[in-house]
Amino acid sequence: MAKMSVQGLDEYALRLSNLSKNTGQIVRQAVYEGAGVVADSIKSGLRQIPVDNGRGTEDRKLHGITNRQKADLIDAFGLAPIENRDDYIQTKAGFSGYGKTKSKKYPNGLPNALLMRSVESGTSFRQKTPVVRKAVNRSRKAAVQAMGDKIDELCKEDMK
C-alpha cells in the first residue's frame, strides 16, 4: 500500500476555518463595492436628465425636469446601510427627503422619491426618462466584476 505524507494540512485547514468565520464580513465588503459601482452609474445618469422648465400637459409632455429638481434628486440619492436579512446581505439605492420647491399640495416640498418615480416611469404630463433602470443595466457587469475582485482580494489576505 502506498504511503503519502502531507505537510501543512493542519495550517491550511485552520486558514479555511478562519475564512469561513470571516465570510459575512467579506460578503458585506463585496456588496459595498458593487453597490458603489451601481450608485456611481445612477448619479451619472441623474446628471444626464434633460432640463425642461415648462409646464407639462397631456398634449405637450415635459421632456425633463427643472434645474432645481435635478439638483434635489442628485442630493437626495444614496444607498441604505448594508443589512443582513434572512442570511441575504443587501443594500438599496433610493431617494430620500423632499425637494426645495414648496407648493400648496406639497407644503414640505415634492417628495424626491415621487419625483424620481415620475421621471423614471413617466406620467400623463411627463415623458418617461428611465435613468435608474438604464444605469443599473449598464453597470451590472462592472458591479459583479468589482464584487468578485473584492472577494478574491479579501480571500487571499485571509489565506496568507
TrEMBL record:
The record, for InterPro entries, names:
HK97-gp10_tail
Query: Superkingdom of this entry's organism?
Result: Bacteria
Protein name (record):
HK97 gp10 family phage protein
Q: Which organism is it from?
A: Anaerobutyricum hallii
